[in-house]
Amino acid sequence: MYHISRPHPNRVLLMGTHGFTLLEVIIVMLLISLVIGISAVFFVNTLASSTFNTTVRDISSSIRYARSLAQLHGERKNVTIDLDARTFSIEGKGVREIPSDMNIKIVDPLHGEIFEGKYQFIANALGGVQGGTIVLWNERKTVSIQPDPIVGSVVVQ
Q1: Rounded to whole angstroms, what are the CA distances from 134 to 68, 100, 101, 110, 113?
Q2: CA angle, 147 as apex, 145 and 153 as ends, to 5°?
């Protein structure tokens, strides 16, 4: 005895649809490449902003760390920013680089704007930090780092 099966009444059978047309594949590939292109531009811009923010955070935290070391050891500590070599460091610690796509200047209360040479921030044992304001900028953003000479706090604006 043979049993003949019929298609389920809710199932629609489409004849001749066994794949995609070339036009459909091209459109999908075009959309995928468009999304990848837009996301690549977004990530490149995010990377530059991230590098800028990281450098600002590293410089300000170096000044805070020098202040903590000065209070802990009871002696002054220096943070040196070399504007020509584009580096900064805490005395006796490693040297860190400032990226080439960033500009930097020091606004000293006595000498005005300084664009070249070495500049030192001095953290004393009582907690104060002597030095001017560090100004960092690129084509999108400008940030100033200002240490407080009495309390020693570091304000990033």
Answers
A1: 20, 16, 16, 14, 10
A2: 115
| 3-state secondary structure at position 37 | helix
40: phi then psi, degrees, rounded to nearest 5: -65, -40
Strand partners of residue 136: 104, 143
Please tell me what DSSP assigns to residue 98: P
Q: For residue range 117-142, what is the model confidence (pLDDT) as tens digits? A: 999 999 999 999 999 999 999 988 99
Q: Are 66 and 123 in contact (CB under 8 A)?
A: yes
Residue 92 DSSP symbol: T
* Domains contained in the chain, CATH given: 22-156 (3.55.40.10)
Banded pLDDT at 48 (limits 50, 70, 90) = confident
